[in-house]
Specification:
The protein has 1007 residues and is an alpha+beta fold. Helices cover 42% and strands 21% of the residues. A 4-stranded antiparallel sheet has the order 1-32-31-30. It has a 4-stranded antiparallel sheet with strand order 2-3-4-5, with no helix packed on it. A hairpin with a 2-residue loop joins strand 14 and strand 15. Helix 21 crosses helix 25.
């Protein structure tokens, strides 16, 4: 039987004409490749257009010395608008075309030197040697294309293209097109020409053209077995079964003993409808003697079964093959393909991720695994990751890509970046198909975005893997009935300041390491305390730059000699006081009228070799500071007998209201006048556990669990409210009555009354004049916590569990008219609320916290309840606001992460794109600082994507990305960024200095 030419002729007529390929597009105008002499090359290229002849000649000679390293630079210069520079660059390119790169010479040897002058057989021998080296000689690809384009001998040109195909894998389409162009000018193309064209067209993703070219090759050499097999594979891959049957019949007639032809013929017959006959052909191959000695044949046989949808037979073939060749990568990957086809996705992905670790970049095996993983990621909704080169490099290096995705998702979700977190979770789910917990995490993330359909699908998948997660589906029903929260439209301008370990070690340890008082926000200064230390830090309110640092010296011990380690201080409060506070200390400074900062400290003395628990209180002291410079203006001894205790004091117009303990088990309320420098009065109190006191007009109010007391400015009691009545009963509740309730929030001013919350979710109002109590609202069943905030005609209160409630008030602020909104979470045991910049800010993570609670700062739109900002903080954290700025200080001397101060300007809004970029950049910096290097590297890549590419990043942002890559042991990627940054910097000395510093910091030298 001979080939019926009609089928191939039809194939050739239907395929697009194989016209000469268009010239390859010019090289990218982006960053040039990183090379050892990149800085010098920039200057040399510029010198080619110099007016001075000697400078031009010196540049020419040096560029020739640099050889192939200069070629990419010269290719760009050849298109330069300066005709002098372009002309010289073109001339140098002609000279350097046949120069052999040093990396190629190291691989191939010196055989390519003076290639055009070598005799014909020697040139063929050299090219064959390159092809035998495979991807080891990948660096020679450009040289081989030059040989294919410019060698005068057709046989040599064909050998060059063949070698090029062996050393590359089709991942550089521009080079493939250049090789195809080299074949387009052949005057008398033969079978080998068409075969080479077909292989290139196949790599370029043009299967129809590839099959047509292979068909032309087969018409010219119909008896060539490898060509017949290649053509059959192309036809079967594109589903052209009629032509495949014709070619298979002809090939079987010419090669009746070939099992390779029989496999392809069996596949073609079975897929064309002759199932029994086709499968019998395939079975005869498997039963043939010696087939188990042919892993290549077994691979193709199993693939044929798989294409015929005979999954069980395909698995049987591959398992039998792997019993003989257990480490054969192609067979292992083929078995994973079978698993994937059978719906056993988890087993398939495990093999793909395992095998990619042993694949060499630039090989067909690596490229095939990448394509399989990319398909899985795209199907899983992670298309962006599917196209990210760095992800596959991470997988190849054995990095925990699934665990990192999970960690990155948690990191981003904690910062309110739910869309980006969902993308990471989708990728993790695609790469770990059997992990139910990952699907639950994805469902939770989508639920928080109110993508209820997506959340339901994720929960259903989780429940199918583990029935315990079915409860998540039931929870969605109630959520669907509630209105979705408004979306946050913008972000805020902000700055960050960190105090690292080296400086922390030099601070002075405080007597206690409890949470310090909140920062003090002045008009142009921020004073930040440090938990566990006595030091204070003055920051610029505009950008958070450190301006000064103050370390107080403990006052002398009046009981005699004392070593420095025996005396210590405890910071209590930072207060802005009028200039009169220093009238007795510095009259000239007082006359300026500028306010001062007063830092209140308790002082202690302890015996040698004892802890501070055995210390004795020695006095209450005020350190008066100049906020502009941090200079000490003076120290005043306020009270030698009463130690100030928590909660933190409050201040108004130079007077401080605090709780003090003159002796054990007794607490008094004390009013201290900072101008007079002494306490004005003390009022005894019956309980130790107190809430923060409150200044309210001419009243001073203090509350505890069971009562509220109002004092006059003279310290005399005006009225009291006892929290009793019908709700009072046995503490645990029994037959005699309901459980007793308690007052659980701080007091808040509200019109001509004050508000306080209870442990059973009620909001009470007490009149300032007389203390008459009314119940404003029953907010819910949970304990109310923290502060009640009243802004305009709306009250805000937080409940145990994390919910924040907004209540509309009547015009006289004495009644609640309706509930405006409720924000469900995130989960928190207690939440502190603060009003700043027309927004509500919430902070959780205090001592009263759940074990799994994440400390967060939230900025909430008071009109809608939308979360405009969500940022994790370290413990302990404090919050302050004033002058259009919100400041959070988190961490301390004992914290692993040190101290971080963040300034947020609620009035300075960013557009959504800028807000997203700022949030991602902050997340990358935080991860880098906290040693989460894998997370930082992945988030830094997201910063690049959000910015629109590396070219859109500022030098500082680009340096941050380089730092994250270097510290996560991705030094080559980091060096690429540094090189790009140096090229962009040009003659900007400041930016070049930045990159030099980054190099020194990271310990990276040019490679």
């Amino acid at each position: 039987m001979r080939l019926a030419h009609a089928a191939l002729t039809a194939l050739l007529l239907c395929a697009p004409a194989l016209a000469q390929e268009a010239e390859a597009p010019p090289a990218s105008e982006g960053a040039l490749p990183r090379t050892p002499n990149a800085r010098e090359l920039r200057g040399l290229i510029k010198a080619l257009g110099a007016d001075d002849w000697a400078a031009r000649e010196a540049a020419r000679e040096r560029l020739l010395d640099l050889g192939p390293e200069a070629v990419p630079w010269l290719e760009r210069a050849a298109r330069d608008p300066d005709p002098q520079r372009a002309l010289v660059a073109q001339e140098l390119l002609r000279s350097l075309r046949w120069r052999v790169p040093e990396d190629v010479r190291k691989t191939v040897g010196d055989a390519l030197d003076d290639f055009p002058a070598l005799p014909h057989p020697r040139r063929l021998e050299v090219l064959a040697r390159c092809g035998q080296l495979g991807v080891q000689a990948r660096a020679a690809a450009g040289f081989l294309i030059n040989a294919a384009r410019f060698d005068p001998d057709a046989q040599v040109r064909h050998a060059a293209v063949d070698a090029y195909l062996q050393v590359t894998v089709g991942d550089v389409p521009d080079q493939d097109r250049a090789a195809l162009e080299a074949l387009a000018d052949e005057k008398d193309p033969g079978a080998s020409t068409f075969l080479l064209r077909a292989r290139l067209l196949e790599r370029l993703g043009r299967p129809d053209d590839a099959a047509a070219a292979a068909g032309q090759a087969y018409l010219k050499a119909p008896g060539h077995l490898p060509l017949a097999l290649y053509l059959l594979d192309l036809l079967l891959a594109r589903g052209d079964l009629d032509t495949a049957l014709e070619v298979a019949g002809d090939a079987e007639a010419r090669h009746p003993q070939s099992p390779e032809v029989r496999v392809r013929a069996g596949e073609a017959i079975a897929r064309a409808g002759g199932v029994e006959e086709g499968l019998e052909r395939l079975k005869s191959v498997m039963d043939a003697e010696g087939v188990l000695e042919r892993p290549d044949l077994l691979l193709r046989l199993g693939q044929a079964y798989l294409r015929c949808e005979r999954v069980a037979e395909a698995e049987q073939v591959f398992r039998a093959s792997l019993g003989r060749y257990p480490y054969n990568r192609e067979l292992n990957v083929a078995l994973a393909d079978v698993f994937l086809a059978a719906g056993r996705r988890r087993e398939a992905v495990e093999i793909y991720l395992s095998e990619v670790r042993y694949a060499t970049p630039g090989t067909a095996g690596f490229q095939g695994l990448r394509e399989r993983l990319a398909t899985i990621l795209r199907e899983g909704g992670a298309a962006r990751l599917a196209d990210e080169d760095a992800f596959y490099d991470d997988a190849r290096r054995g990095r925990p890509v699934v665990q990192v995705r999970r960690a990155v998702a948690a990191w981003l979700q904690a910062r309110g970046l739910r869309e980006e977190a969902a993308e990471e979770l989708r990728a993790a789910c695609a790469l770990a198909p059997g992990d139910a917990a990952l699907r639950v995490a994805l469902g939770d993330c989508l639920r928080d975005q109110r993508d209820l359909a997506g959340a339901r699908a994720a929960y259903e998948e989780a429940a199918a893997l583990d029935a315990r997660w079915a409860a998540r589906l039931r929870d969605l029903a109630g959520l669907a009935a509630s209105p979705p929260p408004a979306e946050a439209p913008t972000g805020f301008s902000s700055w960050e300041w960190r105090l690292g370990g080296e400086t922390l070690g030099k601070t002075t340890e405080a007597v206690t390491d409890d949470a310090p008082p909140p920062p003090l926000v002045l008009r142009d200064r921020i004073v930040v305390p440090l938990a566990g230390a006595t030091d204070l830090f003055g920051l610029d309110a505009a950008d958070g730059a450190l301006l000064w640092r103050f370390t107080p010296e403990p006052p002398p011990f009046e009981g005699g000699e004392a070593l420095p380690e025996q005396t210590g201080l405890e910071l209590l409060a930072l207060v802005e006081a009028p200039a009169a506070a220093v009238a007795a200390l510095d009259p000239r400074r007082a006359r300026t009228g500028a306010p001062v900062v007063v830092a209140l400290y308790n002082a202690f003395w302890r015996p040698l070799h004892r802890t501070w628990r055995a210390a004795r209180f020695t006095g209450l002291h005020a350190f008066v500071l100049d906020p502009a410079t941090g200079a000490l203006l003076g120290r005043r001894d306020l009270d030698a007998k009463a130690q100030v205790v928590s909660p933190a004091p409050v201040a108004r117009r130079g007077r401080v209201l605090c709780f003090a303990s003159p002796r054990a088990k007794r607490v008094v309320l004390e009013l201290v006048d900072l101008v007079a420098g002494r306490p004005l009065w003390q009022a005894g109190l019956p309980y130790v556990a107190m809430r923060r006191p409150l200044f309210a007009d001419d009243r001073l109010l203090v509350a505890w669990d069971a009562a509220v007391v109002a004092l006059g400015e003279d310290g005399e009691r005006r009225w009291s409210y006892e929290h009793g009545g019908p709700e009072r009963g046995p503490e645990r509740g029994d037959e005699d009555g309901p459980p007793a309730t308690h007052l659980t929030t701080d007091l808040a001013r509200c019109g001509d009354g004050v508000l306080v919350g209870t442990s059973d979710g009620r909001l009470l109002r007490l009149a300032l004049d007389g203390g008459a109590a009314t119940e404003l609202a029953r907010v819910g069943p949970d304990r109310l916590t923290g502060e009640v905030v009243v802004a305009g005609r709306r009250a805000f209160v937080a409940a145990r569990g994390g919910a924040v409630h907004a209540l509309d008030l009547a015009p006289d602020l004495a009644q609640v008219t309706s509930r405006a909104w409720t924000l469900p979470g995130p989960r928190a045991a207690a939440r502190s609320l603060t009003w700043a910049g027309e927004l509500l800010f919430a902070l959780n993570g205090s001592d009263d916290a759940f074990a799994d609670e994440v400390p967060l700062l939230l900025a909430i739109d008071p009109d809608t309840g939308a979360v405009l900002l969500q940022r994790p903080v370290d413990r302990p954290a404090t919050l302050a606001a004033g002058h259009g700025l919100v400041v959070v200080a988190a961490g301390g001397r004992q914290s692993r992460l040190g101290l971080k101060a963040t300034g947020i300007r609620p009035h300075e809004r960013l557009d959504p794109a800028q807000a997203k970029l700022a949030a991602l950049s902050g997340a990358a910096r935080d991860a880098l600082h906290e040693g989460q290097f894998e997370v930082s590297a992945v988030v830094a890549r997201k910063v690049v994507q959000a910015a629109g590419g590396l070219d859109a990043l500022s030098p500082e942002a680009l340096a941050t990305v380089a730092r994250t890559l270097a510290r996560s042991k991705r030094e080559e990627e980091a060096l690429d960024l540094i090189h790009q940054g140096e090229e962009r910097a040009g003659k900007d000395e400041a930016v070049q200095a930045l990159w030099a510093e980054v190099r020194r910091e990271l310990g990276l030298e040019e490679r």
